[in-house]
What we know:
The complex is a heterodimer. Chain A is of the alpha+beta class. Chain A has five domains: 2-62 and 124-209; 66-120, no CATH class; 216-334, no CATH class; 338-540; 557-684, Isoleucyl-tRNA Synthetase, Domain 1. Chain A contains 25 helices and 16 strands. In chain A, strands 1, 2, 3, 7, 8, 9 and 10 form a seven-stranded mixed beta sheet that branches. A four-stranded antiparallel beta sheet of chain A has the order 13-15-16-14, sandwiched between helices. A three-stranded antiparallel beta sheet of chain A has the order 4-6-5. In chain A, a hairpin with a 2-residue loop joins strand 7 (159-166) and strand 8. Chain A starts with a strand and ends in a 17-residue tail after the last helix. Chain B has helices spanning 3-16, 36-39, 88-99, 161-169, 185-203, 206-225, 229-248, 254-280, and strands at 20-22, 48-57, 73-82, 108-112, 115-117, 122-131, 134-145, 148-149, 155-160, 178-180, 183-184. In chain B, the strands form two sheets. In chain B, strands 1, 2, 3, 4, 5, 6, 7, 8 and 9 form a nine-stranded mixed beta sheet that branches. In chain B, strands 10-11 form a two-stranded antiparallel ribbon. In chain B, helix 2 links the parallel strand 1 and strand 2. In chain B, helix 6 runs antiparallel to helix 7 (229-248). The longest helix of chain B has 27 residues, at 254-280. Chain B is globular, with a radius of gyration of 19 Å. The chains are: A alpha+beta, B alpha+beta. At the A-B interface, helix 9 of A face helix 3, strand 4, strand 6 and strand 7 of B.
Amino acid sequence: MADLLFELGVEEIPAQAVSGIRDQLKDLFIARLAQLGINYGEIECAASNRRLMVHVTKLPEKTVNKEETVLGPTKRIALDEHGLPTVALKKFCEFNKVKISDVVEIETAKGRYLGIVRVAGGEYTADLISAFIPEILAGLTFNKTMVWNESRVPFIRPIRNILAMFNNKLLALEFAGVKAGNKALGHLLLSDSFFEVNSFKDYVQGLVKNFIILKEEERKSKILAEIKDIELELDGRVDIDDTMLNYYVFSNEYPVAFSGSFEPRYLSLPEEIISAFMTHEKKLLPVYDSAGKLSNFFVGVANIPDENKKVSRGNEKVIRATFEDAQFFWDMDRKLDFFSLKPLLQNVMFQKELGTYLEKVGRLAALVDLLVNETHNEPLREKLQKAAFHCKNDLLTKMVREFPSLQGIMGGLYLQEAGEDKIVWKAIYGHYQPRGLADEKLVDLGAGILSIADRMDNIAGFVGKGIKISSSKDPYGIRRDANAIIKIIIDFKLPLDLDPLIRLAVLNFSKKDSDMKRDCETIRELFVSRLENSLKDFWKFRYDVVNAVLGKDMLTVLDTFLKATALTKLIESGLVDQLAALQRRLKNICKGFERCNFSEGLLKEKEEKILSDVFKESKSRIDDLIIQKNYLQASSEILEMKLIIDRFFDKILVMDENESLRKNRVALLQRVDELLSGVADFSLLVEFKPGERI
Amino acid sequence: MSIQNVILKLQEFWAERGCYIASGYDSEVGAGTMSPDTFFRVLGKKPWSVAYWQPSRRPDDGRYGQNPNRVQKHNQFQVIIKPVPEEGQMLFLDSLIYLGVDINIHDIKFDEDNWASPSLGAWGVGWQVMCDGLEITQFTYFQQAGGMELNPNSLEITYGVERLAMFLDGQNNIYDLEWGNQASYGALKLEEERQFSIYNFEMADIDMLRQVFQQYQKEAERLLEHQLYLPAYDLLLKCSHAFNMLDARKAVSVAERTALMGIMRNLSARIAQKYIMQTEGEDHG
């Protein structure tokens, strides 16, 4: 039994790409070992920004011998009437590099074939591995590649070293002009360029001696533990999101957390600016004090220990200079008359073929106008239209030009500084929110409305331009925009039918009639599928509940959400079974009938007259409840009719010989089904036991 | 360490490693990359090693002399090595050590930063090198220039001279740096920064800049017809600076930006082709 140690030494791989490459590498190794029939114990794959390591244990010296049958043509085709080999058989032998005399008859379930039986395997594992490693490396995919040497092999960054050992012996292989050897890359700063390796044990010890923490999890927990220490020391709190943690974990082989401070006077800058400049610009984290206020301390992660505080002092200087820049932008921008920037938006392109931002804000104002009507927020009209007209002005400020992720926020802050009305500046401030379904709920309704307008305009623009999205491709974030719209509607409980909004958004790009119809349809489908997805995956409704409430012809997000909520409650209360059984029965009987006309005059029997009377009496009340979106109450009122419906089923033969009687009875049942469908299609719910979750 | 000592030491270091020490180019450029010593020499097959100090102008970076870290004219130290040396990263770290940086106590990071210059039809893959959070160098493997794939590739190392000096000297303010022999950066450069910031942002004559852009462009095209690609390139550099000035004056509309960039990209590609045709013969035409 032997083990394989492979390490690829690479110049700094971009942090966000490392884990993906590591996972690809592992998958490719596993697939190749399986394909070649090489058994093994464990496979471990680990990576930092400077190395990709694969360790496979308990490999055999040689692969197992086994008999292998290769079927050729059927006997009938392989031999002619004289029993002589045909062209088909000759080609088969040629392809498999065997003589005709090697061919044997093979009996199979499908008939008699000619073919060969040969012994496969028995190859040296080391040879197989040396041969497949370069193929695996060539099979890795990257977002962007480069070339650097005569080999012209594209890779993510230059390869500087290959360590490859099988059973503690060097493997002969070469990739991208680099020959494998028995040394590994050292730490960039803390050790020699290379260290020698003669076994896996050697390698592990060498990593420790050379200040290399190879495993992602170990680097991560070291960073988090040290940040925790700093929190205690400063009596503060550090928020670290996954993006930043991932950056630290994959840009350092020996991560060490450090802290520093800056002059409190910079705290007069808006908090948004301070934290944005720190995290995105300088990869440092702000520290909040025990009261939750931004303090003048920060935390960062270095690739070396900082016993002399050199790293900390250096970063302090850098952050100070950065804040000086921020202060310069903040001061310069505030000298501008913010509203006067709008005409200059004609110089800023929104998207190729989709015009300038000046055109865009015009479209947004029209959408906002429709939105305040549809959501009954008419009193906000004037202020939100003003916000729409000016929400992109900040693209012309120095701050946003330098730092695009502050767009929206800066516009809001500059207008707040200028004493603008709260509704206007807050709408602009928040109109890029939410970034995703998991974001916190928006607090400002105006920002929500403007955000819907902005995103629907994006969607209509990109769809109109013919941008297609697929499960892996969504270059303009169309799906994210749709999700955000759904979230805002649900968070603010906005009674908004999306159809008129979609139509206006598409019309805004002055389309031909036929294109307009096509675009509206594409966008509708997008929303139906986004709504379905978010209800299931994000809000965690049962899949059958979502199917039951998702109407294909109505795009009223809020109704759908509230119906799903009501259905979930009905399931919990155990009442849903009866409704489901009822609707299934109704649909079953009415199957195959078009919608029939109903006439009271054709009612004959007592039970059908009672049902008709009760239905007539309940219908307007239940319709009202549905209009008020009180789906729970509506459902229980329908349920109250169940006894009468059951009696109808017991006593009345729906399929009467008389066609007009038959159709009239079906019509009555269709009306009841329609009433029920106003809440949901309960017949789509799967059978379940009370309390059971699917 | 003073500005002039940073430059002198880097010249010494790279001269010893086989670079020819050139002078910075004598026309306005936005970066060391734009000097003919880089633009032309990364093209074609011939090996090339050069190092030079290049004053570089970025009109939009003007801060009226009031920012401790940013100026509209800064100094780059540019190194080009073709083909890419295998030990390039280590050579660079050695140069830092030669300048007096103790790499065991300073956090030096290669942070992804890919470089592109659309108007030169050039791009590369690499990093910004951070030292304790301060960007001191751009480290790039050139992939394309003048719209052409490069083979062999070149390594470009661009040091920010002021940044390095501030780091080595422990200064917080660029104007407190010593240029050399007691002459301070402030005494030499503060007034220049103030006046040029006013010029770049407020005074530059927009119509004049548009006109000269066109005249330089025409002249470059005329020269290209006579195979005079070197002076044509000079005129392209002048177009580029005029464009940067227009941009600092916020006078470039969307449509105009696309058009002007297109003109420059087109010129740079034609200039690069003429150079290759003449220096490497028909197999590269």
